[in-house]
Amino acid sequence: MQHNSLAQLEIPVVMGNHLEELPDDLFIPPNALEIFLETFSGPLDLLLYLIRKDDIDILDLDISKITDQYLEYIELMDSLKFELAADYLVMAATLAEIKSRLMLPKESFEDEEEDPRAALIKRLQEYKRFKTVSEKIAILPRVDRDFFIASAKVPKLQESLLKEESEINITDLFTSVVEVLNRPNYKNSHLIDFEELSTKERIQILLDILNNKNIISFSKTLRKPEGKKGVVVTLLASLELAKDGYIELIQNKSEELFIKSVRGI
Amino acid sequence: MEHKVINSVEALLFGSGRPIRLSEIKSILENTGLSVELSEIKRAINDLEMRYEGTSLKVTEVASGYRLQIKEDHGHILSALWNEKAPRVSKALMETISIIAYKQPVTRGDIEDIRGITVSTRIIRSLLERNWIKVSGFKDAPGRPALYSTTKEFLDDLDMKNISDLPDLPDPIEANEIGIEDQVISQAI
């Protein structure tokens, strides 16, 4: 039974009677049960609101009237989403029960039986005490809302942060810094050049030389533009040849290395 | 020497950022080699109170001890600085904490009897998280429901020393009278 349009909400019909108007100090938009429940902290709060609206004393509670008004709100809520507010239904049932008992002929009451309204009035009174005092407490100065603590306290860090921090010593920190500083080196590109001077080629050159000369000083096989690399490659080639028994490496006191062919033997 | 005590007490109040008891101040000072009597610490706090006259600070005594706070006059400036509002407290939550405060220890059922509505778990959890209430025991009744009481932190947060500092709970008769203030509050909602 969904009738959420404003037009229908404006003139609710309760128990066959057209209700004059919605209370103008309470705007209930359609589908706003949440707001309704937020405005009233419970069925007793709603009842107190209705009583206050009529400016009557709780003790002079007109059950019949208040029940009608209460049900008017329940109708509104019904058109919204009622299952959220079962406690309001319980109160509606309580009101209906009191009302029906009041409508019974007086004779049926025993003399000592108390006013059927008494229990409800007592609950309303009790609730009102706490409602009033809770409103007073709500406006009392509250920390972080009305006043603040003066503090030079070290800010609270997350536990995990503190834990990590406590495990770090200066050596770890230094190592980390060094590691980070060195890190860019790892990223330098490393280009592999083709071998400019091939050992194999040098072996061939040495053999060619030794074809003509039986013996030659090491330094004379070098070519100046090749620099250090040339020395290394020549040495490697010589060692390779010496290992395989093609040449002999001779070094005398002059420290000059001589390459001697053994082919001739 | 006297000056040193005053400044040490001030340093502790300022550095703790929470209420601190005279006995705690005493034991900290003694552990760090400054032997003082409780009465001396109390005097130091009185001196600080005088020193702070005409400043934005004040020393207050709340349920958990003494603390240094910024006077309420400057609250709005700090709110503007941090640009955030304290979490809003609902009517339902205020009613619940009020019932606990005046009737403690109470069960959830006791609260529901007075409020006429189910007390949501959310409200109880929210109060427990704020440290405004604690479970102080279990009622010897079917289901052994938890009994809730207010905490010192609740009083601290309301700038109070004792539970008796709370406003008086109105008499049932008084509560009948619908005050103007009351109507203003309901209209403001």
Overview of this structure, please?
- The complex is a heterodimer of chains A (265) and B (189).
- Chain A folds into two domains: 6-138, no CATH class; 199-261, Orthogonal Bundle (Arc Repressor Mutant, subunit A), CATH 1.10.10.580.
- Helix content of chain A is 51%, strand content 7%.
- Chain A has helices at residues 6-10, 33-39, 43-53, 63-78, 86-103, 118-138, 159-167, 170-187, 199-212, 227-243, and strands at residues 13-14, 17-18, 148-149, 215-217, 247-251, 257-261.
- Chain A has a three-stranded antiparallel sheet.
- In chain A, a hairpin with a 5-residue loop joins strand 5 and strand 6 (257-261).
- Chain B is built from ten helices and four strands, in the order H-H-H-E-E-H-H-H-H-E-E-H-H-H.
- In chain B, strand 1 and strand 2 (65-70) form a beta hairpin.
- In chain B, the strands form two sheets. Chain B has a two-stranded antiparallel ribbon. In chain B, strands 3-4 form a two-stranded antiparallel ribbon.
- In chain B, helix 5 (91-103) crosses helix 7 (121-129).
- Chain B is elongated.
- Chain B folds into two domains: 2-79, Orthogonal Bundle (Arc Repressor Mutant, subunit A); 91-164, Winged helix-like DNA-binding domain superfamily/Winged helix DNA-binding domain (Arc Repressor Mutant, subunit A, Orthogonal Bundle).
- With 189 residues, chain B is of the alpha+beta class.
- The model of chain B is unreliable at 175-189 (pLDDT under 50).
- Chains A and B meet through helix 3, helix 5, helix 6 and strand 3 of A and helix 1, strand 2, helix 4, helix 5 and helix 9 of B.
- Strand 3 of chain A pairs antiparallel with strand 2 of chain B.
